[in-house]
Design goal:
Lipocalin; alpha+beta; eight-stranded antiparallel barrel; 15% helix; 4 helices; 222 residues
C-alpha cells in the first residue's frame, strides 16, 4: 500500500519472497515502547451516529481502531483491494508493503508492485505516529528534500483483525482506502466483516477495486 508516493521504476527485487519469510518469522519487540494491550475489535469500532445526523443524512466521522500494537503490525502485507488513486496508476498486480520499526520510533515503509510492462516499481518512505494513545493514526511521507519531509499523508487504521491477519486503512476524508492482508487472499467471512466495517465507516464498497486482476471482489446485492 502506498500513500502520496511517487513509485520509482527499479530492477525487480525479490520482495515477494522476502515477504513470505517475514510473515513466517516472529516480529521483534517494539522500538516504540511496550505494546498497547487494549482490545482491538476485529471489525473496528462500533459507529452509531446521532439520530439527528442519521435523519439529515450526515456521515459519521471516520474512526480509527482503539489501539494498534505496532510490534505486531509491522512486517509484510499484501494489498487486497484499494480505492483507485493517481499515485498507484502504474501498479497492475502484486502490490505489497513491508513495514519495520526504526530506532527513532518511526516506521520504515517499503512499497512495491508490478507494472503492466512487468517491471517492478518501488517506493520507500517513513511513517510517524500522530496519536500516541491508540497508535492507529499515522502520517506517511515518501518525499524527502535534503532530509526534510514537507509532505505527509494520513494513514489511519480503521479496521484490524484480532490476530492481525488483515487491516483496513483509510483517511479522514474517505478519499483513500486500502484492504491489506498477511496472505494474498482472504476468506469469505473476513471479506464480509471488512465490507460491514467499511459500510459503518461511511465507505462504499463499490469504490474499491481488486489489487490483483486475477481476483474478483464480490458485489453484494444492494
Amino acid at each position: 500500500m502506498a500513500l502520496l508516493n511517487r513509485l520509482l521504476p527499479v530492477a525487480p527485487l525479490p520482495l515477494l519472497a522476502a515477504l513470505a519469510l517475514t510473515l513466517a518469522a516472529p516480529h521483534q519487540a517494539s522500538a516504540l515502547g511496550d505494546p498497547v494491550t487494549a482490545p482491538v475489535g476485529a471489525v473496528g469500532p462500533e459507529l452509531t451516529p446521532p439520530a439527528s445526523d442519521r435523519a439529515a443524512g450526515v456521515q459519521p466521522a471516520v474512526i480509527p481502531v482503539p489501539s494498534v500494537e505496532l510490534n505486531r503490525y509491522v512486517g509484510g502485507w499484501y494489498e487486497i483491494a484499494r480505492i483507485p488513486n493517481r499515485f498507484q496508476r502504474q501498479c497492475a498486480r502484486h502490490t505489497v508493503a513491508l513495514y519495520g520499526l526504526r530506532p527513532d520510533g518511526r516506521l520504515s515503509v517499503l512499497n512495491q508492485c508490478i507494472k503492466r510492462s512487468g517491471n517492478v516499481d518501488q517506493a520507500t518512505g517513513v511513517a510517524k505516529v500522530v496519536d500516541p494513545m491508540s497508535r492507529a493514526k499515522l502520517k506517511v511521507s515518501f518525499v524527502s528534500f535534503l532530509g526534510w519531509r514537507p509532505f505527509w499523508g494520513d494513514y489511519w487504521v480503521i479496521g484490524l483483525d484480532d490476530d492481525y491477519r488483515w487491516a483496513v486503512v483509510g483517511s479522514p476524508d474517505r478519499r483513500y482506502g486500502w484492504v491489506l492482508a498477511r496472505s494474498p487472499q482472504l476468506d469469505d467471512a473476513s471479506m464480509a466483516s471488512i465490507r460491514g466495517l467499511l459500510k459503518r465507516q461511511g465507505y462504499a464498497w463499490s469504490r474499491f477495486e481488486p489489487s490483483n486482476p486475477f481476483l474478483t471482489l464480490e458485489r453484494p446485492a444492494p
